[in-house]
Amino acid sequence: MSEPEVCLRFDPGLRMLLTPRHRGAEVRVAPDGTSSLGHVVESLGVPLPEVGELLVGGHPVETSRRPRAGDVVEVREVRRPQPLPDGGPPRFLLDVHLGTLARRLRLVGADTAYRNDLDDPALVERANAERRVLLTRDRGLLRRRALWSGAFVRGSRPDEQLTDVLDRFAPPLAPWTRCTACNGPLAPVAKEEIEHLLDPGTRRTQDLFTRCRDCGRVYWPGAHHRRLEEVVAAAARTVRRRPHR
């Protein structure tokens, strides 16, 4: 006779996070009498920041609950758009592997911090201090109990990742207002003020410029502008599908 088990049913959006041998509609585990339900879920590969609700017998339960033999647990993903713990608009901090996504988020006006020299404890400390959502594809980083708010970024390509983040958090967009290099605010600047910084071709062909108030970087509609406009347009379509909260 088989031992009594706990049956966990994961929402489809969470199954890609499960360890490969558990990526089915249901996962069955034997309760050990000490592990919490949250620990069981994370041991199967799903970080708790990705879980919106746990239901046993159709009733919400806490992650600290100890599962019992015979329990049927529904593991729901976070609802979208996802409200933040403080109710404010989303601000982001990205880990070292998401530099391109950081530039895309800044392009559409999302407040996005990024540095490529912070280790995991420093990332958590900064996210907590500045009340930023820590975006990462490192599930271990999301398991840190001290983390205020975090999210696993779906997709391997920057376009997919941007769509996922905008769909999940629906931030207000303000394209072309942030420096993609440092996240500082952009302001219009007269051509004569920065003409000495331009190469001859740019001086001859461009007349509209903005400059970062923090780092001084100058922007104008260059060769890649059409591609960037496509990114901005796609971002606007994504957010329009989600109501602002």
Write up this protein.
The chain is of the alpha/beta class. It is built from eight helices and twelve strands. The strands form three sheets. A five-stranded mixed β-sheet has the order 2-1-5-3-4, with no helix packed on it. It is elongated, with a radius of gyration of 22 Å. The N and C termini lie far apart (52 Å). The model has no long low-confidence stretch (mean pLDDT 94).
Give a nutshell description of this structure:
The protein has 245 residues and is of the alpha/beta class. The protein contains eight helices and twelve strands.
Rg? 22 Å
Structural class comes to alpha/beta
Query: What is the number of beta strands?
Result: 12
Give the proportion of residues in helices.
25-40%
User: Overall 3D geometry?
Assistant: elongated
Q: Can you tell me the residue ranges where pLDDT is under 50 for at least 5 consecutive residues?
A: none
Q: Estimate what percentage of residues fall within beta strands.
A: 15-25%
H and E string: EEHEEEEHEHEHEHEHHEEH
SSE diagram, text form:
Layout (H helix, E strand, L loop, with lengths): L5 E5 L15 E4 L7 H7 L7 E6 L2 E2 L11 E6 L14 E3 L4 H9 L4 E3 L5 H11 L2 E4 L2 H4 L7 E3 L5 H12 L16 E4 L1 H4 L5 H6 L3 E4 L5 E2 L5 H16 L5
Parallel strand pairs: 1-5, 6-7, 6-8, 8-9
Antiparallel strand pairs: 1-2, 3-4, 3-5, 10-11, 11-12
Helix pairs in contact: 2-5, 5-8
